[in-house]
Amino acid sequence: MAEVMTNTLVGKIVDLLFSAAKRQIDYVRNYTENIEKLRNEAQKLKDMKGRIQQKVHAADDKGDRLLDGVQNWIDKAGTEISMVQDFLEQEVNVKKTWFNSRFCVNLGTLYRYSKMATDKTHFLVQHQEDGKPYESCVSIPTPSPSFVDLYQRKNLDDIDTQKLTLEKVITTISDESIQIVGIYGLGGVGKTTLAKEVAVKLKNQFADIVFITVSQTVDAKMVKEKVKDAAKKVMIGKKILIILDDIWEILVLPDMGIPCGNDHMNCKILLTSRSKNVCEAMTEENNIICVNPLTKEEAWVLFKRVVYERTLEASVELEKIARDVTKKCNGLPSIIHAVGTTLKNKSIDIWKAKLDRLQNHALVDLDQEIEKAFTRLKLSYDYLRSEEAKSCFLLCSLFKEDEIIPLKILAEYGVSLGIFNNLESINDAKNRVQIAVDTLASSLLLVPDRWRNRVRIHDVVRDLALLIGKDKFMVKVGKDLKRWQPRNNTSQNYTKISLMECRVLNDLILHFPSLDTLLLQRTWIATVPDEFFEGVRELKVLDMTYCTMSSLPQSLKLLTKLRMLNLSGNTYFHEISILGDLKNLEILKLRNTIIERIPEEIGQLTNLRLLDVYGCKCLSHVTPGVISKFVLLEKLHIGFFLNQEENYNCLVEISNLKSLKTLQLYVFHCDLIPEGANFKILTKFSIQIGKFINIWVGHRSHRLQIAESNIPFKMLIKELIQVSDTLVLWLIKDLDNIVPDLYKESFDELKCIKLRDCQNVSCLVKTRNHKAIQTFFTSNDIGQIRQTKKKFFSQVEEIYLVDLPCLKLLWDCPHQYISFSNLQTIEINGCSSLLMLFPMSIVQELAKLRDILILRCDSLADVITETQMGIPDPDANIVFPLLTNISLGYLPKLKSFYSGHSSIKYPSLKSIMVKDCRSMERWGYGVHDIPKINFHHQGTPCNINDIITLHHKTNKDMEFETPP
After folding, report:
1. Residues 40, 43, 48, CA angle at the centre, nearest 5°?
2. Would you list the DSSP string of 904-923?
3. CA proximity to 537, closest of 554, 520, 562, 518
4. What's the pTM value of the predicted model, to 2 decimals?
5. What backbone torsions phi and psi does residue 707 show, to the nearest 5 degrees?
6. What is the 3-state composition of the chain as percent helix, strand, coil, each rounded to the nearest 5?
7. End-to-end distance of the chain based on CA atoms, in angstroms?
8. Residues 854-888 pLDDT 10s
9. Contact partners, residue 601, CB within 8 Å, separation at least 6
């Protein structure tokens, strides 16, 4: 066995020795082949290195980033090639030595060089394998710098309007429950700048921020491409901010490839738009933020930065001019930058010239930068799809800067100029104007006044309108035109001229053959010759309100195309027969003039749709039959200040007008209201009876005022009262209550009650022990009360009771018949006998109450009292959800706001005023939760139940408001 193992081991050793010997022999035998192979592989590596190096150079030229390892591979390849070249040179020199010295070839040397060549070849081949990926790609594209990287931050120091708006936007975006935030504002107000400021501020909170300018023409494909990568990141849970700038129409975000909805709240979206409506449609109302123009001081700060403050400080005169220039920019940063840039480093004479052009709205002559700024602003106008909105916008430019413009005036102008298609009525025109104004207000081209029926236009936006109409409009408002006579080469094209509040000192005859609108409100013209209107025969609208004319010029009858004539407020002429020639007139307004009669000639105006002769206190005669001829009349405003029998006949004619929808009427006495007059068919009426005292309340559609007159309790007046939504009674002596004295049944239509100086009124509703209560409530067969009509006061929104010395209660009937579910405002002043206002059983229905004002009520002890039969419930919770203001003054017996112990919450309360209520001991005995008001006395926070103590320390006056 040992012999066999020995033989096997010897055999293996011999095989190994033989293999090793064979390899060594192969190195010697294949010497030349190995050297040549090394040379070839070195050349291949060199060629590969050259190709990859070319790609590297190309990537460097493009600014792309090299892949990790590329440069190391190139460096190593260079080293390997250099070493091989040295080796090959060595090998050549060795062979030369052999041949030159005729030495025999040294087998050991051959072996060594052949083996080294084989080893190096292996390294070269492996390096080529390592470099193959780089032959196809050596770099990755370097992303272009984002707008966040390139954006230069704006200096918002002392620009609080934009700084606070920026903070509000950031706070809203940071709210995890909000996904889409919209900011809107006028073109050039700085929306894009604020959006970029937001991005820079929040760049560390998002994995990616994408900024896309959408503009007027939406390119959905472009938007999808730009948000593609960001959308992928959203889907894997990363937080992304997408800013869609300059949106003009409502976008469906998922169709744009933008993830949104509850499943993708990590995708925040910021919208900017000129349209409030667009922002509201794409997000919730509370998530939209208006970007307002800068204040005057902020605009001045910005303007100084643009033109360099030191330049302005060098001259007092220049600084004054610069401030005036800044005011004309209306707080729009884009206009401020444009104007400032063009004036920077210019002489004071150029500054003066620019200011003069700005003040005279000569924008067409201004510099290119300013024109560009206005062109951007003009996009808002160009994008309007409604021609009616465009026409209303341009009409607003005819008025004075920042003047409050009634919508009814725009409607009347629009009707007369024919800007409304398929118009049904003048009231319809008012509605169409409201729609147009809403459209313009959404784009911030107009600013609604706090009353919905009025509007304003900002200076710079008015300048834009004048720029648009520069070839056809002439507007010189508030100027002294000492020697004004337009040139013939410019007067041919004018369609609208406004000379409101001007003084024209020279004799003037108008020559404007294309003119359709002439506005001369409050204009003083030295001389109005008979030929005044000869050159404006295409005129459709002529407004000469409060103008100075001693008589109507004879040329007025040449205006046969005139559709609106307003001569209201002129107190120098009284004869109007000449107006009978204006047979196309649809609107004639003579309010507050001194006309004495409406002559027979006026009956020729059969196209009249609106006639206003209200407030004409000299009007004593209306020719019989004239009113009846106005078969198309929709609106009539007329007053009869003289108690003449013939007025009755005129009123009968009025009651027979079939098209009449709106009536404003004053009559001296209730007896003048004709029998059979049907006021129910009127869409709107305002009727005053008795002494002329204008104390209208609110803006409701059916208003009745009776002052200093004995009310005849005949059925006609009760019917008129019954259909009125606003009832004002002043100095009515023989009135004890309104139910049942004035109302046959309930007052279902009544929304506003105002009683003043009605000495005998003891309550508003007095039905205790009176059969009238049965008209509201009956009993069923088992004795349960069944309501057949609405409760008393259930529709009333406002109550004003002033100087009613006998008023003790608001109602004298069981509480279950009373409801104040719609009451919003109650004001009681000078009701010295009033004992109680609201019992607790009624308070629970005051869900809409907003304002309480009680003054000079000597007997009032509590505003809210526990009912006599009621049992105080400390656990009861009363909430005034909308109550905003409480004012209590000169109430000597008032002990508390609430005498019970129930808890009351006032979540919306903003202010409490208590003045000279010397008996007031506590606000109330229950828990009064008023979280939005901080009570402080000399810097010390106080509880509401402690305010009366403070009251005695502060001269009996207190006022607490919501902290800023």
Report:
1. 125
2. EE-TT--EEEEES-TT---S
3. 562
4. 0.76
5. -135, 135
6. 40, 20, 45
7. 110
8. 999 999 999 998 765 445 555 567 889 999 999 99
9. 577, 578, 579, 580, 581
